[in-house]
């Protein structure tokens, strides 16, 4: 009997990306993440259910339009001081009736159930760019490992279609669920944000035991897999060389080949507007983006045999 493939909850498919694997890539963003990083730049990917995003500056005005208010069964639609849409989140049931009717696209659904066929069709539309650039499909999120059956089915189908595949992952999953996903990938970006589990929990909401253990499993079971470990460098959290050195040492201890590399990513606050769209508050709103020069300076101080990117 043929296995039934579940649908995936996807919140975005972004084309022509250049920094998430080799060549030109299409990113498929899985909705739902076990971490709550204070610096997260994709807050619309955190929860494992569809959510309403509100771009009130696109709203025509409640007075001259008001269609959303007319269809809302929860009476959750109000107006801000400019007369534009303001959703009372505590009343909203995420029925999405307002999204369907809004003529200005001020209201957007974040999170849609999609089949493997639907995702592959969108990804394959840019196939010509992948073959010329060595690019392909990258699973991102949120956390793709939270939907392991869909991820496996998508990767198998991508392989049948001749697409190169990569993942951006927190590594926070049971190994038995993560393993079949990792096994099918050509390239892995693996986040290790902090080595101290206590600091990790304080800043991301979860301890890092699973993440470190899974990295060790990954190196042991797939020693030739190209893996880039990434650390987002966050001011006041992990922007000192001692903390980064502990991560570099851990990578060096576990890596079995030079295909395992280490990359430092400078903090940026590009995601701050999205918190407003999602009705959430951004914990690091007063923090400025970090320069690449600062990160390059930290990189130069690391002592490691692991190739630095
Ligand atoms: S999603 Fe549904 S309940 Fe929420 S504001 Fe829109 S119409 Fe109202
Ligand atoms: S339907 Fe759209 S444009 Fe009209 S009032 Fe509501 S949010 Fe504004």
Give a description of the structure.
The chain is an alpha/beta fold and 309 residues long. It folds into two domains: 8-48 and 112-301, Alpha-Beta Barrel (TIM Barrel), CATH 3.20.20; 51-110, Alpha-Beta Plaits, CATH 3.30.70.20. Helices cover 32% and strands 21% of the residues. The strands form three sheets. It has an eight-stranded mixed sheet with strand order 7-1-2-8-9-10-11-12. A two-stranded antiparallel sheet has the order 3-6. Strands 4-5 form a two-stranded antiparallel sheet. Strand 11, helix 9 and strand 12 (260-266) form a beta-alpha-beta unit. Helix 3 (116-124) packs across helix 5, helix 5 (148-160) packs parallel to helix 6 and helix 6 packs across helix 8. The longest helix has 14 residues, at 241-254. The model has no long low-confidence stretch (mean pLDDT 94). One iron/sulfur cluster (SF4) is lined by residues 59-60, 62, 65-68, 85, 101-104, 106-107.
SSE pattern, N- to C-terminal: EEEHEEHEEHHEHEHEHHEHEHH
**Ligand identities:** iron/sulfur cluster
Query: What portion of residues belong to β-strands?
Result: 15-25%
Helix content: 25-40%
In CATH, the homologous superfamily of the largest domain goes by the name Aldolase class I
The CATH class of the largest domain, by name, is Alpha Beta
Radius of gyration based on Cα positions: 21 Å
Largest sheet: 8 strands, mixed
Strand order in the sheet with the most strands:
7-1-2-8-9-10-11-12
Unreliable stretches: none
Structural class: alpha/beta
For the record, the CATH architecture of the largest domain stands as Alpha-Beta Barrel
Gross geometry: globular
Terminal residue distance: 46 Å
């Amino acid at each position: 009997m043929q296995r039934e493939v579940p649908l995936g909850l996807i919140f975005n498919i972004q084309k022509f990306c250049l920094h998430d694997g080799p060549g030109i890539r299409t990113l498929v963003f899985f909705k739902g993440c076990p971490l709550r990083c204070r610096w997260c730049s994709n807050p619309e990917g955190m929860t494992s259910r569809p959510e309403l995003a509100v771009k009130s500056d696109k709203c025509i005005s409640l007075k001259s339009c008001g269609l959303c208010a007319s269809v809302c069964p929860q009476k959750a639609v109000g107006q801000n001081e400019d007369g534009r849409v303001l959703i009372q989140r505590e009343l909203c049931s995420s029925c999405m009736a307002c999204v369907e009717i809004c003529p200005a696209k001020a209201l957007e659904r974040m999170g849609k159930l999609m089949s493997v066929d639907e995702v592959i069709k969108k990804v394959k539309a840019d196939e010509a760019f992948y073959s010329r650039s060595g690019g392909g499909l990258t699973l991102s999120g949120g956390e793709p490992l939270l939907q392991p059956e869909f991820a496996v089915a998508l990767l198998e189908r991508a392989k049948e279609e001749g697409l190169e595949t990569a993942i951006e992952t927190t590594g926070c999953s049971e190994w038995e669920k993560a393993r079949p996903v990792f096994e099918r990938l050509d390239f892995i970006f693996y986040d290790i944000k902090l080595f101290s589990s206590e600091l990790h929990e304080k800043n991301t909401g979860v301890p890092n035991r699973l993440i470190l253990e899974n990295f060790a499993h990954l190196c042991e079971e797939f020693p030739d897999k190209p893996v880039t470990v990434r650390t987002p460098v966050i001011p006041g959290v992990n922007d000192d060389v001692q903390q980064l050195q502990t991560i570099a040492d851990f990578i060096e201890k576990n890596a079995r080949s030079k295909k395992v590399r280490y990359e430092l990513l400078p903090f940026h606050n590009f995601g701050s507007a999205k918190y407003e769209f999602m009705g959430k508050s951004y914990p690091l709103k007063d923090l400025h983006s970090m320069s690449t020069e600062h990160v390059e300076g930290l990189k130069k101080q690391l002592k490691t045999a692991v190739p630095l990117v």
